[in-house]
Amino acid sequence: MMEDRCCHRFAPLSKGRIEDGCNLRCMYHGMKFDQDGACIEIPCQDTIPESARVRVYPSVERGGWLWVWMGDAAAADPDLIPPVVGLDDPDWVLKPGQLDYEANYELINDNLTDLTHLGYVHNNSFGATEEWARILPTVRRTERGIRVTRWIPAGRGLSMKEDGEKGLADYVGLDWAQWNNSDYYAAGVLLLTSAMYRPEDMPADGKSQPTAQPVNASFSNHILTPIDERHTRYFFSFGPRAVDGDEQMALGLVEVAKMAFNEDRVMIEAQQKIIDKGAPNEVIIKADVGPVQMRSVIRKLIKAEGGETRAADAFTTEPGAETMPA
């Protein structure tokens, strides 16, 4: 991945022309760069300065996304790419979506790592109930992130929408116990599996991993790309298992998701405006364990990149991490 800026007059190289299969010519004054970013031709002169080069970032295409390492190229490690599910995965029928937020990416992280807001923000779209706020999840540290799991008893998590439009209940049913497993990876990738089980298959403790086979299941990727301090691009895909639904069902789920994510966007952009005015310190409650733990992971990774701490420290579970904010 090449920086979108010519080293001469800073023209966008995205408006350039591919030549010889792998070289890029700037279409402002004609300088040509090889795939390593070095200038190999200047039309008006034979001598090429060593400084005539463009920064190149290590990149990998995986799961339908292009992953770009923005830091030290020597530290790039493809093994750090989260295990996203691609649109071509035969086990799932996924359809994509995208929207832009006028907000910092960490506010969206907070939203995705704390689903207690579903019954208030998404009652109209998903048909979610306030049980999502009353039943606290289990949060655990994982490698480079957190895992958030939650059981919702049968008939308590979703309701049919009163306006006649389709919500999640129309696709997954109302009579099942719901299991949600969210794996969040630094710095902004959520992989969410939601599965429905027979009421008798929900563990008695309401927390243990499911052992039975689900009645149906859906999956969604959520990937955040910061544009700048106040703008974030949000990519997502959503759909059912291939054994549970088809493309029409996947498209329906994505339409419901788009409505829900726009509800999030309105709330989060409003948050950002208040924060920009100089909001006081937040009051932390029990439901904040996910956002607090994820912010802790990201802060430590940022410090590690600056040499202030070790990256491994970001994965150490702090006292009370599974029940209360650290």
Keywords:
disordered C terminus; metal ion binding; iron; Naphthalene 1,2-dioxygenase Alpha Subunit, Chain A, domain 1; 6 helices; 25% strand; oxidoreductase; 2 iron, 2 sulfur cluster binding; 326 residues; Rieske Iron-sulfur Protein; seven-stranded antiparallel β-sheet; elongated; alpha+beta
The main β sheet shows up as: 7 strands, antiparallel
Mean pLDDT: 90
Q: Under CATH, the topology of the largest domain is which?
A: Naphthalene 1,2-dioxygenase Alpha Subunit, Chain A, domain 1
Reading the helices and strands in chain order gives EEEEEEEHHHEEHEEEEHH
CATH class of the largest domain: Alpha Beta
From the N-terminal CA to the C-terminal CA, the straight-line distance is 38 Å
Stretches where pLDDT is under 50 for at least 5 consecutive residues are 311-326
Count of helix runs: 6
Please state the second-level CATH architecture of the largest domain. Alpha-Beta Complex
- The proportion of residues forming helix, as a percent range, comes to 10-25%
Q: What structural class do the secondary elements suggest? A: alpha+beta
Tally the beta strands. Answer: 13
Q: Globular, elongated, flat, extended or rod-shaped: what is the shape?
A: elongated
Using the CA coordinates, give the radius of gyration: 23 Å
Question: How many distinct domains?
Answer: 2
